[in-house]
Amino acid sequence: MLRNQSYQAYQNNAVTTASGAQLTLMLYNGCVKFIQQGMQAMEENKYELKNTSIQKAQDIVQELMLTLDQDVEISEQMMPL
Among 55, 59, 61, which residue's Cα sits nearest to residue 37? Predict the structure, then answer.
């Protein structure tokens, strides 16, 4: 139990002290992780876990879309992706 609390405190500290670029990378990594979990769950016929994982990945993609700076040209190109 103490180990879990220590890890959670570490994770919270990592997020609160991260730069914008680091937070973006964390979001991308989390998205990939949840997609992989969803694919694995689908192969194992664990449809509830698949659904939860894919929803988490979709939430991350939505957050990434919301944080795009529309004044930057590359953002306009990334949005359709």
Answer: 55
